[in-house]
Write a structure and sequence with these properties.
heterodimer; A: alpha/beta; D-Maltodextrin-Binding Protein, domain 2; 2 domains; five-stranded mixed sheet; B: mainly alpha; MetI-like fold; 10 helices; elongated; MetI-like (chain B); MetI-like_sf (chain B); ABC_transp_perm/SBD (chain B); transport (chain B); membrane (chain B)
């Protein structure tokens, strides 16, 4: 008897669920085909006027840099809010364009490669000029810092030894070994010019397999250290390179170009003192400093905001 | 911009049909994860559920354990187990199994416990051994409910295995996660469609198994 009651109840429940699913599907389809002016379902809300929204990409250094920019601006009396850990450049650039985020730490050459895959990167100044020409009209780059953090292909120590590669070897030397190696990187590394596409077209490297991990974060570091992948996209300021004895291959063709830390801002977002504050940060930030700050966040697990504040104070910027 | 155009573009692109990132290999990976997790969860949930349901003891303990396991956020558990254990299949199997055991365990227990006591008493009175009572009287009568527990576990595994792509596992979730990072909505929508299709196929399979395995006498009631 109970079983009869149960089965009839579950049948009505199924009908209900089916109806809900149909309604939801219909709503989804019509919602997406209703001729929205924006073709991006993920577009967010615009930033409130008078507030600077500092965004960051989904890796530790970006969060740290965003905190540095934000606190430097806050020290000038500006109203600052943070949107941390948003995602990849493919997402954050769209948010900058539509005004949901108004200040973003960027890497000049990497941004250029995103805006124009074929752009040659011969000097840091030319890169910035080229980026500004390609940028959305409402966006601009402020002054670049000497601090540089590129993407790079790193091997773990065992793989490097096995294939007789050292820190003096280039990406071209990897050609023979590549078909036997699994390479790891962020999901977007798979489709970027500064990624698998460029590694194949510039150096002729084809790998056995690609494993999607994170953007130079803990997954990538652990996967490379544990030989889950034998090669990976690692940031050159990654403190685990030294710690785990990863071997970073040289990039003579400059595929990964220039990657100086540079604030990307909306032209209408910052008053003059805000621009000056960020330029002052860029002037003081060099690669050595960045390595040190990254190590504090990633190895010593300090809070990036505290690290940012402490550095701004020690550099005399606040 | 219509969702259907995304679906069409995704499935129409021949590049999505071969290689390690092609639809056949990703689909197969997803099915493998699902079957493995379901097998492990059933190997844990079914015997315990049958035993406790048959004896009628331990029901409270099961309810407590099952509810606690259901309250665990599978995504957090996934990231945690990867960080603690490392890579590979094991850390991903843990949240999937933890998620799938409660529905199997609870429905099996309830199904066996609520079998009409009259035929059970009759069987016992005729001198049937306890194992015979369980497998030849209680299980056939309880089978529709037991299958429904397995079914909801399977569908949950199919949908949750999608997020495993976040921690570098393959499967159909790769399209959803990669597509989000690459801002490639074709991939996101295509991957989501495939997950939905797999969930529906799973439901259909359980329906077919029910048609075959459930005794006509029980089905008609």
């Amino acid at each position: 008897m109970t079983s009869t009651a149960k089965s009839s109840r579950s049948r009505t429940r199924h009908h209900g669920a089916a109806a809900v699913a149909l309604a939801a599907a219909a709503a989804l389809l019509t919602g997406c085909s209703s001729g929205d002016t924006s073709d991006n379902p993920l577009d967010g809300d615009k930033a409130e006027a008078g507030t600077v929204v500092v965004g960051s990409n989904n890796f530790a250094e970006s969060t740290l840099l965003a905190d540095i920019y934000g606190e430097a601006l806050r020290a000038k009396g500006l109203k600052v809010t943070y949107k941390h850990n948003i995602g990849s450049r493919e997402t954050t650039y769209g948010l900058m364009r539509n005004g949901s985020v108004t200040v973003l730490p960027e890497y000049n050459g990497s941004l250029l490669a995103y805006l124009d895959e074929k752009a040659a990167q011969t000097s840091a100044e030319e890169v910035n000029t080229a980026v500004k020409a390609k940028l959305d009209k409402q966006l601009t780059l402020l002054e670049s810092s000497p601090a540089e953090d590129k993407d790079s292909v790193a091997l773990n120590a065992a793989t490097a030894k096995k294939h007789n590669l050292t820190a003096e070897s280039t990406l071209a030397d990897l050609k023979e070994a590549a078909p036997r190696l699994v390479i790891g990187g962020s999901p977007e590394f798979q489709t970027r010019q500064q990624g698998l596409k460029g590694l194949e077209s510039v150096y002729g490297l084809t790998f056995k397999n690609f494993k999607a991990l994170d953007a130079g974060g803990p997954l990538t570091q652990a996967a490379l250290a544990q030989n889950e992948v034998q090669a990976a996209d690692v940031f050159t300021t990654d403190p685990t390179i030294v710690k785990e004895k990863f071997v970073v291959l040289k990039d003579p063709e400059n595929l990964f170009g220039y990657a100086n830390v540079t604030p990307l801002v909306r032209k209408d977002a910052l008053p003059k003192e805000g621009v000056e504050a960020l330029n002052a940060v860029s002037a003081k930030l060099d690669t050595e400093t960045l390595l040190d700050l990254d190590a504090q966040v990633q190895l010593e697990k300090k809070d990036p905001l505290d690290v940012a504040k402490a550095w701004l104070k020690s550099a005399g910027l606040v | 911009m219509n969702v259907l155009t995304f679906v069409q573009a995704f499935f129409g692109d021949s590049a999505h049909w071969h290689g390690y990132d092609g639809i056949p290999s990703r689909f197969l990976e997803h099915v493998q994860y699902t079957l493995l997790a379901l097998a492990v969860a059933a190997a844990i949930g079914l015997p315990v559920g049958l035993l406790t349901g048959h004896t009628g003891r331990g029901g409270n303990a099961i309810a407590v354990v099952a509810n606690a396991a259901r309250a665990l956020p599978s995504f957090g558990l996934l990231v945690l187990s990867v960080l603690l254990i490392g890579f590979g299949l094991l850390p991903v199997m843990i949240p999937l199994v933890v998620l799938a055991v409660p529905p199997i365990l609870v429905t099996t227990y309830e199904a066996v416990r609520t079998v009409d006591p009259a035929p059970v008493d009759a069987a016992r009175g005729m001198g049937m051994p306890e194992s015979g009572i369980l497998f030849r009287v209680e299980v056939p009568v309880a089978l529709p409910l037991i299958l429904s527990g397995l079914r909801s576990a399977a569908v949950q595994i199919v949908s949750t295995a999608t997020i495993a792509a976040y921690v570098s596992l393959g499967g159909l979730g790769r399209y959803v996660i990669d597509g989000l990072y690459q801002r490639d909505y074709e991939k996101v929508v295509g991957g989501a469609t495939l997950v939905a299709v797999l969930a529906l196929v799973t439901l259909a399979l359980f329906w077919a198994v029910g048609r075959f395995a459930v005794s006509p006498g029980v089905r008609r009631r």
